[in-house]
Amino acid sequence: MILVAVLVAAATLAVTWRHVPGAAAVKAAARDSPPGFWYGTDSQFINVPGSGPFQEPAIGGYYGGYIGMAGNWAWWLHCQGAFLAWSKTDSEKANRNLTQYHKGVGTASYWFMGGPGVDPRYNGTTTEAKRWGARQAARALADIRGRPFRQRVIYPVLWMDIERPGIAPAKDNGWTSVYTSPCSGTVKQHSMRPVVARADFNGFWGYVKAHSSYVPGVYSAPKVWTHIFGTGSASRIPHTYEWTYEPETADLSYAPSGWCYRGISGCAEFFGGVTRSNKHALMWQFSGGGGVRNAYGDFDQIDRSTVK
Predict the structure, then answer these.
(1) pTM of the prediction?
(2) Computed from CA positions of residues 247, 47, 167, 280, in that sequence, does the dihedral angle turn out positive or negative?
(3) CATH topology of domain 5-303
């Protein structure tokens, strides 16, 4: 991912303002702010200290939430090298902070989503792309309800992870190219109409809304979003909850207050018509993804004020 640090060893998409700090260099904040905001982590395991209520690693304050990979299109289709990024330990600690200590949002989940170009039934139509999105949503919901996720995913938004991660088997996850088969890694068409990509998104969104109590949301960033969906009507999602990963920093001493960094310029950048003043702006992965590494892992800013 750009969301999952181990997926992006070669990625250079985001901006780094400082070198990766050692543990002693990080300035611990008393707590996240303003009220309603929480720090959290996502994907791979990070050691969350304390015995309850648990504390945010390195930064300080309460541990406000964990977001894990509920599923992966390539894992689902048995592609070589595909994997899941889920920490049972961090999930349990986030849920305990919420249910026992009333801190944070608990556990959320995301589906590492395939574009139309990795659909085994791809035929270039919006009808099939929408069906492919719906099939992924059905699998994501089944994964959440099955082991090891059952009764652990508390947060009400189910995230679509839409990106171009630069890794096998499909470097763009099938969003801008069509592959000879989902796991082949061989491109047969170097283009994708935005309207077809949007149909994939719509299929997932609509299935989640119709078949679960979860609300569909999307993880992406402005440059990637416009590269896939353009700037026209296919790109507009003003009423969809968002989680962004731009901009990022490797230095955790700049951990944000609200949607902006402390000590340096830079604020969360949303996409598709959503801004940080919009109620649909919910999360910001401000460090650890996109190749912008710190000494620990992926860190997030979470706004709980509009989704509870």
Answers:
(1) 0.91
(2) negative
(3) TIM Barrel (3.20.20)
